[in-house]
Structures are given as structure tokens and as C-alpha cells.
Amino acid sequence: MKRRVFLGLSLAAVARPAFAFDAKNFKPIPTQFLAALGDPAAKSGTGAETWGLWTVDPGPRGVRLEKYNELLATKVAPAQWTFDPASWWLEEHGLIMEEPTSGIAAGRYVVTGDRAVETVLTIFPKDAAGKQRWELADGATLYDVTHLRCRAARYTLSAGSAACTPGMVDPNRFPVPPGDKMPVVSGCEAQDHAVLFVVGVEE
Asked: What confidence category does residue 139 fall into, taking pLDDT thresholds of 50, 70 and 90?
């Protein structure tokens, strides 16, 4: 999961789509990676409290499947993140990734899929039940701002299963083609997430 091009928020960039929002109200930030759940065709929805955020690219910090036993022995990756055998993540090249930080603070963010659309994502404050709404500007859909080359899935134990580990993953299933679902793993419940690049935040 590595971004090839940094768009940023430079209004002088000529190879970028035009802004449909007032860019002067936003400041650029180093690219962050948002793991989102939702209908790809949705322009708004609920459940943002279940989304996750990597403030740095988790791909280069990942552990290869063949190193799983070493990771299991220490529960600590070389990049110093902690491995949770009950809830683990894979990316499109078969790297075991650290778990993203749960939830994203209420606010307005510039997001993109590094394709044709760059727009504003609004995350609303939690309601009385702890639920968070989200909404994309400019009529954009979640698919429009999903980086298709980045694939990410969370794996947990399926009901009635005895085990769900990265050691059960078929390494021949990687890399995962852009837009495809992550591999099914026996005994596991896989939850595919859309990956959005967060490149700016409202000041």
C-alpha cells in the first residue's frame, strides 16, 4: 500500500482536477490512509466510527507472510507495532499490516483515490448512540475516492471456526488486482475496506 504520486493541495499543479471547494480553508498534510466501510456507490452514510486511520503508510511497515511465525513469537513487528492474532490485517501484496487507529475525528478532510476526483469528506460528531455520519461533497461516491490499487482487509475468527491465522493464507493469491476482493481465508471472516488518501484538513 504505497502511494505513487502526492497530489497535495498546490493550486499551481496543472495535472490535477479543478477544486470544487474553497481550498484556502484547508491545509495540506502528509498523506494519511483511511480504511472505510460502506457501499461504493454511496455519497453519504453512517458508521464512520468503525473506520480506521493510518497516519503513515502501513505497507512498508508490514511483515511478509513467510515471516508470520517470527511475528507470532514476539507479537511485535520490526517496525514496532503490536500484532493482534484475534484481529489482523493484510494488504494487496500479502503483507501483514498493523491495525489502523480506530475512528476518525469529526471534521472536514480533503480525500482522493489518486485518480480523477479530489473532494471534501465531512465526518460528523458522534450522536447519542456513538454513531458517526459521513458525507462526500460534489456528488462524489465512495468509489470515486477509493484508491483501487490499495487493498486492505481485516480478518477475524469465523463463528464456529477453530483458527484464523496469517499462516493459513495462500501466498499465491497475491498481488491482488486493483479493485478485486481480498482472498478468502479458511476459518476467517474477511472485511474488505476501501482505502482513501487523506491529503488535507480544514483549518
From this structure: very high
